[in-house]
């Protein structure tokens, strides 16, 4: 039997300790992920296995296989990765984190809830964990333990998001801009957007608006051809000279052009607001130097936000999220305790104890019922029957006990324990 | 009446608890707190209904025959209107500001509760009169809702304008939502008050010598002002200006409900 502290293992690298040049060398594409897991199992390194590979992390979760050394279970896994990716071990082994048992499970729960993310509390990771489970299940290396571990981590992630404020306020500039816009008009889909510029920033906002099903997008740029290139997924490009013509029709103006002078003057904004007959207009100025004259912010019906404003809000939101770490961790610990109770029950000793108790209870109840009907038996015969029943229980338990205790592969041992628990309806 | 006082007090306490849960939800947005607020509000609403039902059974009419019971009915309708806002429009940010209004009027009605119910005038019974008064109180409750929504609009507008994006900013609804809900509440109020007035005129022709009364005059003014507010956006007077006008218009409602009812009206005087 292995002397591993726990068969549940995690070997990983993330953005904190491992630079991107290294992370990209040991990342798994969806196609390579299945091959990697298959080899890990064929070589007896993992009994069950799952890989989570994103731009910020590569993590291997698994149940130790029979070929793993109990003294250094992670050494063989690291060597495998080096061979699989064709990267010298020395290039990446130094920054790995290695976890076992509850620590491994806790790490995945933290990852799924966004506590380990670069942007604290971001929710993209929950989809990535779900995708890792799907791909690994497809590779045939996820069975009951890892399936439950990943499912529980997803549930924990959802609970953290619904019960704490960890992911409630945006912390990216585009996220903050969208939140502000939605405080003016809740549904952005039917709203009219005027984007000034066709560079990278305008492109990011264009993509963001298209992703939110906004259809009324107008792009004005000094070079019309570049504006036309930007709106290929919807919207329209207009000549820069017609900017003032289109301004009154816009509910939102996003400006990101390079200009030494404001391209939207207070007078232009005043005329546009007058034509809008009281309907407010949101100015998002992402230009440096500023594209919208600061006096526009003083006009009735105008809401003006510049880059600094958005950065300030993003920073405050980041601080708010920091305050939610402790409540989020409390939720995770609850979920972790439930998972570990189930996982711990799969160990050989508790399973055999539960099985023995079940058999003993059955023996007692059946024996008492039978004896009640056999009142003609002498006390000596009754004792013989009692011993026979005892002997029968021992005989029935012998084979399952040996099968569980003597299985050298920890993953298979847990698998068998779970099968026993399932077949005999043993509670964890 | 003793049991009525206890039931009213229980309704008040339930509204108070709902207010506590709504404030907690404003501070920490949690699904459990939202559910708790809804449950407490609903229970308070039902208990409050029981109190009104007791008054109705005692007087054999809709409970509006005195200032106390009409204020209680008014508070109940505000709580109900906010319940509708929560359920149909999924609006939760306005709760901490609306529930206290219901509590204020319920509390005032409890303090003003007479020891024994006055025996109502037999002419004041009957479905026509009951509908007239119920619609009028509903109209005023809807205008109270519109007033609170207008204030929230002004607060949110100021926060957005001054770039104050704190907790309240994040919890309050978008400006267009507040504007839409305020307009909707005003529309219901105008509809209810017009209908109430028409029914009142039909009833008054049978029982009054003259249709002139200070309450009638002020009601015409309230209807005209708020109907004008509904049309205002077409003339470029939407958003913040409409919110200010709505908030200002509510002063007229308060005047009508208090000074006119207590001192100026000959026929609508609470005795």
Q: How many beta strands in the DSSP annotation of chain B?
A: 0
Strand content of chain B: under 5%
Shape estimate of chain A: elongated
Compute the number of helices of chain A: 17
Structural class call of chain B reads: mainly alpha
**Strand runs of chain A, count:** 10
User: What structural category arises from helix and sheet content of chain A?
Assistant: alpha/beta
Largest sheet of chain B: none
Mean of pLDDT of chain A: 89
Ends apart, CA distance between termini of chain A: 22 Å
Alpha carbon gap, first and last residue of chain B: 18 Å
Uncertain stretches of chain B: none
- In helices, the fraction of residues of chain A equals 40-55%
Describe this structure in words.
The complex is a heterodimer of chains A (428) and B (271). Chain A has 428 residues and is an alpha/beta fold. Chain A has 17 helices and ten strands. Chain A has a six-stranded parallel beta sheet with strand order 7-6-5-8-9-10. Chain A has a four-stranded antiparallel beta sheet with strand order 2-3-1-4, sandwiched between helices. In chain A, helix 5 crosses helix 7, helix 6 runs antiparallel to helix 7 and helix 16 packs antiparallel against helix 17. Chain A is elongated, with a radius of gyration of 31 Å. The mean pLDDT of chain A is 89. Chain B has 271 residues and is mainly α. Helices cover 78% and strands 0% of the residues of chain B. Chain B is built from nine helices and no strands.
